[in-house]
Design a protein that fits this description.
homodimer; 13% strand
Chain lengths: 242, 242
């Protein structure tokens, strides 16, 4: 299996970075090929802009997705995007490794998605969800947060974590066509003791050896919708958990 | 009323930018003071990092939120953050104006949140939701997207838009203490004709004259939770819509 881990943390000694090292170790030990894009170390530029395109289809007005399609097709997309896109297209499993910032990914990682999840390859036309460009691949969020697990359940103060992360799980990874595995979450990380951290790293390593046993999140199938994306029949949304 | 509009679009001629101008006009006409932070024009740096702090509480290990608290207190936070924080603290109404990128804000705007929503002022300790630092202020998302409205209702292919944006509505604005007004959404914008665009701008202008008539989103109250954030009683989460 080819694995791409996209990682972002502003502190190289962080626990999240220990999780990254654990993932590289656990996956390499199983014989998988592991690539890491460490966005802070790479000084990744997260800002989608006209500068991403070597040649413009429309010089007078920037339609970002249109220029993505054109510039990927003609090989004139910015080299930093092209390099990441090659890694993305080659991978069987994509892992986003990050600390939760405002119930989402840090901006530097959001900008990896904005710039690398290009129209024409990752999605486009009616190719999304189970017809998305990334179908056949799997994806996983592995993240840390300050809150406790019970704060993120249905009765918790923040509600279910998978609903808070729906924009990532469903709106991004699911939309792109990935099978989305259940997230691995390190709760309360800034406040736990060393023994708990060690146990958490161990659990993460174990988790990564058992990915085939995990049930992917339930996501929409386009078969349930017509060409205008009108539902063919009433769907029980409660069955779509992410 | 003092209004801060934080705006991000990579194309200055975009319809989203017309919405920004409409907002400035509609709000100024009502006698409100309007400040605009146009993030692409400002070349805003979205990457939270050690460089944001003039003096470090802990030089050997970066805990971003801790250094935010310390550096705001001592006046040594980066000048670009300090300037935006002043605008944020002065406003009565915050509007985020943007095109939807991957069911969220563009990275440059996520990085405004990561860096400006500082610990110690915006949140911290047990000050969040109805005890958050921004209590007394209101906030609103005003955004455009390519999809049609029926794709984002309960039976739609993407499910309810407010659930897709929960990380922003509840996890960010609600958490910070804002009263969150219903979003103004321009659907299907890349595909609509000029007459529809004109009508949409008109509706947005009208919307901004009637903010006092809008019912804020239902969000948790900390009164329902104890000091450990355990629920005092079972809450009907279905009543919390955002």
């Amino acid at each position: 299996m080819n694995v791409l881990i996209v990682h972002a943390h502003p502190e190289p000694q962080s626990f999240t970075t220990s999780m990254l090292r654990q993932a590289v170790h656990a996956l390499s030990s199983q014989g998988h090929e592991v690539n890491v894009s460490d966005l802070y170390a790479m000084e990744w530029n997260p800002v989608a802009s006209a500068a991403d395109f070597g040649g413009r289809k429309n010089e007078g007005y920037l339609t970002y997705a249109l220029e993505q399609r054109e510039n990927v097709a003609t090989g004139s997309i910015a080299p930093d995007i092209a390099a990441e896109l090659d890694k993305l297209l080659a991978c069987d499993l994509l892992i986003f490794s990050f600390p939760l910032f405002w119930c989402s990914v840090p901006a530097i990682m959001k900008g990896w998605i904005d710039r690398v999840f290009v129209s024409g390859k990752v999605y486009g036309g009616l190719r999304f969800y189970d017809r998305g460009g990334m179908r056949g691949k799997r994806a996983l969020l592995a993240y840390t947060c300050g809150g406790r697990d019970f704060m993120f359940d249905e009765q918790g103060v923040h509600g279910e974590m998978d609903l808070m992360l729906r924009h990532m799980l469903r709106g991004t990874l699911g939309y792109a066509g990935f099978k989305v595995l259940p997230s691995f979450i390190g709760y309360h990380v800034p406040y736990i003791e060393q023994a708990e951290r060690t146990a958490l790293l161990q659990r993460y390593g174990d988790y990564l050896t058992k990915l085939d046993q995990l049930q992917p999140l339930a996501l929409p199938t386009l078969d349930a919708f017509d060409e205008q994306m009108r539902p063919r029949a009433v769907v029980a949304q409660r069955d779509v958990i992410a």
